Amino acid sequence: MPTDQRQPAFVLVRPQMGENIGAAARAMLNFGLDRMRVVAPRDGWPNSRAVAMASGAGRLLDEAQVFEDTDAAIADASLVLATTARPRGMTKPVYSPEHAMQMTAERIAAGEKVAVLFGPERAGLENEDIARANGIITVPVNPAFPSLNLAQCVLLTGYEWQRATAKIVAETVEMAGSDWANSAEIAALTNHYEDRLETAGFFFPDTKAPVMKRNLRNLWSRMPLTRSDVQTLHGIMRQMVRWKERDG
Description:
Blueprint: E1 9-13, H1 18-30, E2 36-39, H2 48-54, H3 58-63, E3 65-67, H4 70-73, E4 79-83, E5 94-95, H5 97-109, E6 114-118, H6 127-130, E7 135-137, H7 150-165, H8 183-199, H9 209-222, H10 227-247
Parallel strand pairs: 1-2, 1-6, 2-3, 4-6, 4-7, 5-7
């Protein structure tokens, strides 16, 4: 069964290859979308090639609604958006995928239903389909090669839907079994290096020693060190001292 999440319907208009329908299903499920509608698929329905390509997203194909024409597929939608890369000589608002999905999220939150049209692989949506849409979504691609595969277009639109409706963490750090070093541990590391460098005569001449030590402390404080990093750096210095003492 489809999820309870309110979301747009992605409408594949006259898709030509089962593999692309299956790939589109995978792209949709990547971003939690499971309302697929298929209009007049060229090779009939169900399609074994679509099932093979969908892999783990096969349930989207099982639950997909199939329509004979575009009008029937969008009948319940109050906002219809058509994806196309080519100007069609129609006066319509043209949205980036990002803005289109932000608007879609707002309209769905207000209780409306939204349908997004994706055209067949060879030439995209026909003018008659685009004329039914309230606006156009155009991906900012290389103008010398604007053609996108059906599944690619679905993927990009789905990604922007995810960005518009879910909290996206911009950066994370995998700690790999260690915690961040605290100030006391960093201070102990700093003292260890200062002591050994002092013995080695690094802080020379004496007049520059305070600035050199301050710069060294600043260096350690700027580095995001884990406890494992601190232990490694302690071990490096100890081994260097042992090697020097043996060599001496």
